[in-house]
Write a structure and sequence with these properties.
By secondary structure, the protein is mainly α. The protein has a single domain (7-166), classed as Phosphate transport system protein phou homolog 2, domain 2 (Methane Monooxygenase Hydroxylase, Chain G, domain 1, Up-down Bundle). The chain contains 6 helices and no strands. The protein has helices at residues 7-37, 40-71, 75-112, 119-145, 148-157, 169-173. The longest helix is centred in the middle third of the chain and has 38 residues, at 75-112.
Length: 177
């Protein structure tokens, strides 16, 4: 019979997930600012940091697999591990959306020489992003506190996003002067 891994390993995984979540929310904020303010350097920074998002995602998934193999969890522990895996996947997808917004900001800036996208279009993107950030931050808080009620509330908040994602970055990049 093998020794059971300590909860320190689970704590490291949760810490990694929180780090990924903070990075993704910053990516979203920076991509929006790059779009709103025509900041090409900031958009390029978002694109460079996407590699960090991908690396953190891979590391988190590797740790989850290791924990699943070592612990062979069942019941609530298995559900929690799978939920962490789903959270990692969702955060990585949000990072991809931030990358798309940053690319659209660069394309729009290049094509329009700094002309801002139509206010209603950028307002829709900003409203969706604000909701995403609120949900992510609520979920991260729940994970940090290991609060199942808060985590469930965050999942239910996600229902408000159905139909709003992915952001129509093609429309953002198609701004005409």
């Amino acid at each position: 019979m093998s020794a059971r891994p300590s909860d320190t390993e689970l704590g490291h995984l949760i810490g990694l997930l929180l780090k990924l979540g903070r990075l993704v929310t910053q990516q979203i904020r920076d991509a929006l600012e790059a779009l709103r303010e025509s900041k090409g350097a900031l958009a390029r920074m978002v694109l460079r940091r996407e590699d960090w998002v991908d690396a953190l995602e891979l590391e988190a998934h590797d740790r989850i697999v290791d924990l699943l193999l070592k612990r062979q969890p069942v019941g609530l522990e298995l559900r929690a591990m799978l939920a962490l895996g789903n959270s990692v996947r969702d955060l990585e997808r949000m990072g991809n959306e931030a990358e798309s917004i940053a690319r659209a900001a660069l394309e729009a800036q290049a094509r329009t020489l700094g002309v801002q996208p139509p206010r209603e279009l950028s307002s829709d993107v900003e409203a969706t992003a604000a909701l995403v950030i609120e949900i992510v931050e609520g979920g991260l808080f729940a994970i940090a506190q290991l609060d199942l009620d808060e985590a469930a509330a965050s999942v239910h908040d996600d229902a408000g996003l159905k139909g709003t994602l992915p952001v129509d970055t093609a429309a953002l990049a198609d701004v005409q002067p």
